[in-house]
Q: What sequence folds into this?
């Protein structure tokens, strides 16, 4: 995965130079956003739904210990194996062991962001296990060896020709690049995999605490395949993904489907209460639920950021974000991109060196907060993350120097006057149309793409003084 | 398990209190729910939404009308399928009476999925090679054009999933206004079945250049017969 080796600036430059990517990102986000507008309007009083969604999520998160315990009890009573994973490495180890115990060679996966978060596929492949991503978009990026570029449409950055080229070695012949041909190829190819799968791994959109159920939504039906056909199923869930009962599930499913794709309900909404009954003909006999913490408990204990756990992963914030819409997901460098990715990645990964750039992938316009179906104040959290980063001493040298200089001049009136006079003279080589449009680094980082106002020929301090004199 | 206790008490400590012993009082939910005034309207909106998603749908009042409807949709195709594969029509063990009698009059023999063979892999293979999967439905949702099916030993989840076509029967009395009513009814029953499948139209994806494409994994064609009795 070459993009992981690039610096943030390199990734951003690459994204900005990729015209197809930028067009595709705009197309996808426009489409999803407009569909969401339609679907939210027709529901009648969307704000009431958002408000209900927000209260439900807040209630769950502030009682997470109770509901998680209830979920685990319900599951274990019925014979589901529940595994608690503190870290991504724990989660990977748990899955690896299950796969080994069953001597499984073919693992089928439906979409799971947790599996991306813990980098599961790679680990299983090392053990010689064939892991097949069955969601079409995930399948495409799996072959390409890339992380998702959008949380809902993970391969939206690929052209149809690129997709056809990726499929060619698997098909053994060149495919034409029209959508029906590509889809049909995947249907046939994947069918054999589905019927052969030893273990199915799925994600989890919601877990219902009082019944011990797992809710999964897909449009392709791959989630149903993976949770119906293999004898053993593993579901990966982030520990915050809970609703108390079916009563709250109604609100959350309405918000999720409408915010994600503008559908009233996804094509397939599946409520699993595993394992299968003895007499049932289909469904897994053995069911494992892996619940991941990975610093979510730290976020829970951090009052400033607790609301970040309210997210339902609908992707609505991606589609309205001016930064995401210009760059697409790969420039972020993280598994979760977009506004919510910029919030949770630094909190989950706890590595400012690697993820310190993310809180700055935002214009703080607040469109994300307005789009969020559970009203997470995303832009506000981004500002607070910047504060955290600065407090932890991870500010870049240049920024530190600039603020030192700022303090130096603004606490010395005479020096400041002198500097302003000097600046007013020195700026001329860089001024075009009364704006500063060039300059030495670090100023050039700004002026490469934007301009700055000129240093006023007569500084404000002077104007003020003159006004006072006139009176 | 102490592992669970540690995990949970760690969360309690992060929340700065001990874990509540009782279920916390539920949050107030007041949202405007979609409601239609009568069953006729519900049926018509249900069909309209199902068709908008790309499904075919019709209302029938008798076994004869069911037969006419199936004839109109499939013509002589099933007879041709059956020539190549005598298990081309796979069904639940029991279908609504009008459906059963229509199929027997048409002389389209149904393979009962759960009784077809003992080995699950062979069963999947039969369903995967079938041309049409035939099921009933437990509930329907007008607002989203959705059919709801509970898993059951006499049914089989693969029947609505593996064949390229899915035909479902639903009685008018089972169609509800919205998802809330469906979930409310399901919760009254106590422990839910192993799987509740809510299906809204055919399998779809827009993963390649946001271009809508039907039938990547699940059924490509979906049909619903609403029985008005």
A:
């Amino acid at each position: 995965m070459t993009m992981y080796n690039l610096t943030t600036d390199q990734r951003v430059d690459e994204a900005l130079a990729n015209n197809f990517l930028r067009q595709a990102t705009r197309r996808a986000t426009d489409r999803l956003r407009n569909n969401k507008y339609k679907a939210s309007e027709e529901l009648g009083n969307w704000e009431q739904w958002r408000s209900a969604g927000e209260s439900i999520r807040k209630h769950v998160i502030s009682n997470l210990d109770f509901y998680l315990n209830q979920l685990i009890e319900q599951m274990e009573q019925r014979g589901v194996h529940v595994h608690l994973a503190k870290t991504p490495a724990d989660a990977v180890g748990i899955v690896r062991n299950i796969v080994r115990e069953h001597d499984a060679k073919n693992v089928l996966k439906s979409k799971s962001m947790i599996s991306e978060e813990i980098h599961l596929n790679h680990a299983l492949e090392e053990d010689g296990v064939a892991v097949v991503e069955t969601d079409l978009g995930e399948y495409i990026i799996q072959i390409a060896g890339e992380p998702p570029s959008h949380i809902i449409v993970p391969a939206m950055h690929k052209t149809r020709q690129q997709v056809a080229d990726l499929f060619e070695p698997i098909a053994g012949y060149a495919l034409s690049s029209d959508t029906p041909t590509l889809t049909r190829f995947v249907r046939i190819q994947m069918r054999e995999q589905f019927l052969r799968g030893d273990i199915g791994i799925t994600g989890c959109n919601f877990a219902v605490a009082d019944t011990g159920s797992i809710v999964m939504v897909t449009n392709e039906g791959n989630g149903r395949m993976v949770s119906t056909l293999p004898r053993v199923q593993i579901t990966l869930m982030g520990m915050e993904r809970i609703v108390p009962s079916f009563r709250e599930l109604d609100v959350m499913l309405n918000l999720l489907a409408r915010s994600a794709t503008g559908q009233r309900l996804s094509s397939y909404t599946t409520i699993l209460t595993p394992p299968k009954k003895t007499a049932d003909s289909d469904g897994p006999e053995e069911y494992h639920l892996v619940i991941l913490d990975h610093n979510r408990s730290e976020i829970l204990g951090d009052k400033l950021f607790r609301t970040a756990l309210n997210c339902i992963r609908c992707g609505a914030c991606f589609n309205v974000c001016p930064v995401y819409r210009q760059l697409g997901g790969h420039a972020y460098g993280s598994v979760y991109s977009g506004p919510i990715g910029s919030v949770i990645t630094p909190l989950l990964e706890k590595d400012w060196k690697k993820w310190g750039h993310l809180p700055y992938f935002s214009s703080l316009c607040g469109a994300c907060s307005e789009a969020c179906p559970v009203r997470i104040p995303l832009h506000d959290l981004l500002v607070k993350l910047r504060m955290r980063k600065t407090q932890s001493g991870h500010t870049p040298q240049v920024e530190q120097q600039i603020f030192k200089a700022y303090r130096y001049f603004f606490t010395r009136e005479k020096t400041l006057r002198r500097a302003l006079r000097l600046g007013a003279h020195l700026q001329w080589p860089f001024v075009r149309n009364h704006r500063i449009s060039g300059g030495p680094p670090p100023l050039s980082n700004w002026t490469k793409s934007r301009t700055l106002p000129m240093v006023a020929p007569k500084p404000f301090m002077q104007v003020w003084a003159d006004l006072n004199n006139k009176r | 398990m102490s592992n669970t206790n540690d995990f949970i008490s760690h969360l309690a400590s992060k929340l700065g209190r001990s874990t509540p012993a009782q279920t916390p009082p539920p949050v107030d939910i007041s949202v405007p729910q979609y409601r239609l005034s009568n069953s006729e309207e519900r049926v018509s909106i249900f069909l309209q939404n199902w068709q908008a998603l790309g499904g075919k749908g019709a209302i029938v009042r008798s076994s004869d009308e069911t037969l006419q409807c199936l004839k109109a949709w499939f013509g002589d195709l099933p007879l041709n399928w059956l020539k190549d594969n005598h298990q081309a029509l796979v069904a639940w063990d029991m279908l609504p009476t009008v459906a059963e009698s229509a199929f027997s009059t048409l002389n389209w023999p149904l393979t009962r999925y759960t009784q077809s063979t003992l080995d699950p892999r062979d069963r999947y293979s039969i369903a995967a090679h079938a041309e049409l999967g035939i099921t009933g439905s437990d509930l329907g949702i007008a607002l989203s054009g959705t059919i709801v099916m509970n898993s059951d030993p006499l049914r089989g989840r693969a029947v609505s999933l593996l064949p390229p076509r899915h035909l479902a029967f639903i009685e008018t009395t089972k169609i509800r206004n919205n998802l809330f009513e469906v979930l409310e009814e399901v919760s009254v029953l106590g422990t839910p079945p192993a799987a509740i499948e809510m299906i809204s139209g055919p399998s779809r994806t827009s993963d390649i250049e946001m271009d809508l494409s039907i039938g990547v994994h699940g059924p490509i064609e979906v049909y619903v017969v609403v029985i008005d009795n």
In short: DSSP finds eight helices and twelve strands in chain B. Chain B touches chain A through 82 residues (CB under 8 Å). Residues 118 and 124 of chain B are 11 Å apart (CA to CA). Chain B has a mean pLDDT of 96.
